[in-house]
Amino acid sequence: MFQTIWKRIGTYKTLTFLTPFFVLLEVASDILLPLLIARLIDQGIDGGDLSAVWKYGLLLLGAASLSLLFGTLSGWTSAIASSGLAKNLRHDMFYKVQEFSFSNIDHFSTSSIVTRLTTDVTNVQNAFRMVIRIMIRAPFMLLLSVLMVLSLSPRLAMIFLLALPILGSAVFLIVRKAFPAFEQVFQTYDKLNNVVQENLRGIRVVKSYVREQHESEKFEKTAREMYDLNCLAEKTIAFAMPAMQLCMYMGMIALSWLGARMVVGGTLSTGDLTSVFSYSMQILMSLMMVAMVLVMITMSRASARRIAALLEERPDLTSPDSPLLQVKDGSISFRQVDFSYAGDLKKPALSHINLTIRSGETIGILGSTGSGKSSLIQLIPRLYDVTAGSVLVGGEDVRSYRLDVLRDAVSMVLQKNLLFSGTIRENLLWGNPEASEEELDRVCRLACADEFLSAFPQGYDTELEQGGANLSGGQRQRLCIARALLKKPKVLILDDSTSAVDTRTDASIRQAFREELPSTTKLIIAQRISSLQDADRILILENGRISDLGTHEELLQRSQIYQEVYASQTKGGLS
Fold first, then answer.
1. pLDDT tens readout for residues 259-305
2. Which residue of 21, 44, 260, 388 sits 20 to 30 Å from the alpha carbon of 412, by its own alpha carbon?
3. What's the angle, vertex CA 267, arms to CA 263 and CA 272, rounded to 5?
């Protein structure tokens, strides 16, 4: 875990190592201050030597200036190094997620990935800054302060030597108990993010069903759970400071009583007692810093583990060592394909699929919900890998292609049409960043998007809201089809992507495909028979298996499923 995080330091290693160096110089300067104050009191003030006052006064000023300088430098280097680590972690996690297959993403929830990129990285950043600065400063300050007290008065130093093991044990037990609580806190962060994300995405559904109260109660329940866990963790940690202060202040009382007696007895000077008190405060502050860093490390350890889990996740879809770099044509072949999302063939989504599709052929796909239609077409661009058997595109197994080459040859328009905030032009250019104005006009005409685009005063430069919220469902679908066509694919897959357009527009799109894309293999999933009946062949899926395959006329003659669907759509189910 820590090795995974450390690798992300990258170019900030120099600043990371410079920080402890500056911290040590700062500690050395700070350690000299009480000693110089003691000499100033004993030799200058008590001794009535003005030259000693000037001498030690100037040395004090120099030591304080050096402490300020090195402290500023250590703060600057630690801030840059920790911010750089956070930047690299977010960069690597984001790009790692881009490499994930759908099954990898299914392993992490969307809200969990967001929490890891934000809250978890911030926790690690803060802990890292404290570790390379305060975690170096505090132990060294503690050790040197105790040594200085030992050199001034071994008897007084025994007070601290007795208190330190007690304090260390108390802090260890508190931190050990707090860590599991913080792990639960971050898991609840994921749940809270998920609730908020679902509510914002589905706000129209929430309002149309008047479920605001239900969603508020769900949010309150999760927020209360996170509050309770945070309180439990913080209450546990809160014992650290009082325990430390109790031990240290008891030590200060003992120090005052014993030190005063030693000054009166002449075995300790006033200046040395003042130095011991100063070193005592440094010991107290160092212990408090150690406790604070341990708390932060405890919190960030859970975050670091979650970040490392994401970074160490291995994408289960990768390009082969010597990949094919060209897809010959749009022919598709399924050979004895079995597929399960869980990798368990006892729960198959597809079973014994054998299907050959010629390049340029149009295949309609029909089936009830859960019959495996979307599962089937997602195997073609290798969004998932088959559990058994093989899928061939252009005569080659899809696993033999470089992933980007295969996916460039296959355009998919999914059920959930996603447009990004920006202009219509920017969204269309996802299909081909180098596309000309003429190419944009062509694909929009094929997708029948030109009908509504001409009504927009700014045309392609019309700004879209997030998700294309200022467009209708049918308009979004047509823009997504146009975007897919810009890729000039060898295989075009439409997954129920004309469900929101009227039948006339649907027919116009299909006619444009037949006339303008004769060499492109087209797979069309639809619930309307009218959207499929002109296809070269229609595939009927039932419970993850091929029920039948044939033309519209052939299926009307022999397929009971097709006959029932056709009858229900053309005659209202009456006979």
1. 787 877 777 777 777 887 788 778 777 877 777 777 777 778 878 88
2. 388
3. 65
Crossing angle of the two packed helices 13-39 and 50-99, in degrees rounded to 10:
160
Q: What burial class does residue 217 get, using C-beta atoms within 10 Å of its C-beta: 0-12 exposed, 13-18 middle, 19+ buried?
A: exposed
Burial 161-179 (b: 16+ CB within 10 A, else e): eebbeebeebbeebbeebe
Identify the three-state secondary structure at position 336: strand
3-state secondary structure string across 493-527 = EEECCCCCCCHHHHHHHHHHHHHHCCCCEEEEECC
Provide the residue type at 156 as one letter.
L
**Least-confidence region, from 17-26, 353-362, 377-386, 566-575:** 566-575
558 with 564: CB under 8 angstroms? no
Mean per-residue pLDDT of the chain = 84
For 532, the 3-state DSSP assignment is coil
Predicted pLDDT of residue 274: 80
Q: Nearest Cα to 306, choosing from 183, 205, 446, 403?
A: 183
Structure tokens at 215: 């969603």
Q: Are 417 and 480 in contact (CB under 8 A)?
A: yes
The residue that leads in pLDDT, 242 or 317, is 317
Relative to beta strand 521-525, strand 537-542 is unpaired
Q: Which residue has the higher pLDDT, 101 or 33?
A: 33
Per-residue CA distances from 376 to 334, 380, 393, 470, 471 (Å): 9, 8, 13, 32, 30
| Measured distance CA(22)–CA(67) in Å, rounded | 9
Quickly count: other Cβ atoms within 10 Å of residue 285's Cβ: 16
**With bands split at pLDDT 50, 70 and 90, how would you rate the model's confidence at 175?**
low
| DSSP calls for 549-564 | EE-HHHHHHH-HHHHH
**pLDDT recorded at residue 186:** 67
**477 contact partners, CB below 8 Å, separation of at least 6:** 413, 417, 497, 498, 499, 500, 501
pLDDT, average across residues 241-256: 74
β-partners of residue 203 are: none
**Where do we find the tokens 């094919």?**
324
What pLDDT was estimated at residue 241?
66
Closest Cα to residue 1, out of 315, 304, 295? 304
Three-point CA angle 246, 248, 250, nearest 5°: 65
> 173-182, 249-258, 365-374: lowest mean pLDDT where?
173-182
What is the full DSSP assignment across 204-257? HHHHHTT-HHHHHHHHHHHHHHHHHHHHHHHHHHHTHHHHHHHHHHHHHHHHHH
Confidence tier at 396 by pLDDT (50, 70, 90): very high
Q: How many CB atoms lie within 10 A of CB 570?
A: 10
